[in-house]
Fold this protein.
Amino acid sequence: MWALSLRWGVGEIGCGRGGHDVVVTNEEDFREWLEGQSQEVCTAIAHRSAMRVLPFALVLDGLDGTERLALATLRATLTSGVAAAWSTSDVVSAAAAYSARAASDSAARASAGAAAAASARAASASADIAASADIAASAARAASASADIAASAARAASDSAARAASDSAARDSADIAASAARAAAASDSAASAADSAAYSDAERDLDALASLDIPVPVVIREVSAKLRAVGRSALDAGGSWAFWAEWYDRGMAGDPLPWKLQEQIALIPDDIWEAGLEAVAKEIERRQRAFLANALPQSEALAFDEEAATFRVEPVAPAKSDLLAATLDSVSDALEDALSEASNGLTDRSREVRVLRRTIQRNSNDPQRVEMDCVSAYRSLTRQITVTEDLPPSEDNLALQSALQEAAQGIRAVHPDIAENRRILIEQALRELPDETQVALVDAAPVLEAISDEALAEEFREDILYLTVEMRAAPPRLFVAGKRNRILAGYDEKVRVFGRSSKILTEIRSGGTERLDKLEEKHRITRGDLLSVLVSLVMAGIGLLK
């Protein structure tokens, strides 16, 4: 039997017990350990237990109610994770309570196997304890949830007893979720793995455990993968289930989707959940688009030309056109000075030079684009001067670097919206482009160019070329000590491509079938292919967010 040795101590795990060794070898020991934990920790353990056996509830075997059961179980599991790791708001607690009941009710109604029902009960338990914010709420929600956890309603007569009572509901529900995980296991090896994983949670750093940002043990992921191969799993069905596969895989790997996005999905109204899979998928996509557009903001408007059936970007008007013109003149002068001496290392073929000349000649009335191009060129110069030493720290190069920094700061000073966009982008770290996303961008380029006007098509072409070809040969990343705004190649190019793709999809959806008909007729692109490309780019963009 697998065993866990853990030293209890005040301040280490929040239990307040004196230092002594505790060995967890069975359910009784595990329950005793739970009794010393906070509600947040128990919620996290319950959520993880539910995640481990979630595939049992997601086999779409054609039996009555299995699709509804799968959706209710997914909702309950996602909501419990959000409530445990991200939000303690009343509205999330209410959503957790409702989703717990929905999962429990669906399990009772569906003609599914015992494993699916047990998995649903585990999800129900994990969602229910997430809703237990105090003794009264704990008692009410536990009583209205599944029979498995109704008996765990708390009682207390003092503040300390009230805390213990609230935690009692969490401990009981976490224990039930772990028990359901074992009951749902399809083999002795799976049951053993579920036990080991649940017990091993007690060994982890509890602050990290409560955040759920911990990879699930490899053996559990392997067992889950085998379970997904049984029948037609919702995790592999694609289509309206596609989001859930991404959500589950990242959660199981300890790399959850952004919690702000998950919170938005947890707060989808009950009537949409009750309407079924297609309604939920449509609403999830809408919230994904809005989330990505907000995470990658740009001060510009996207418009659709009904006659040409193309999209175009309309920049915001400069707040002070004379100041913007003077700013660009300063950058232009500094650029020409840097190009005047070969020893400075810059040439007309240098990307920084091409970017700056383009913005001076073509985008001089677009303060958002000028700011982004100045930042992009500044970052590139900084990498080459500081990291790779491809460029010398000459007086002209440093003067150009300074002019770019002053230009970007000056634009932000008179455009609060652009300043706020940059603040958001600085806080929003972006991942490197994985190979599959680079392939998706290459495949998407002809479609994006076809549905854009000449100017936007050229910008898509330039940005995608840089992200998929030129950036591979770019200097390595520069990490600035003590700052989150790492100097990364391709940062603003990613913002433009994925942010604009999200806005284009929103415009298409808002235009209904008539807009799709125009795009299909004008550009010889089937609506299925067009929507598939844009939805995949939205998903890829969200995948870059940390």
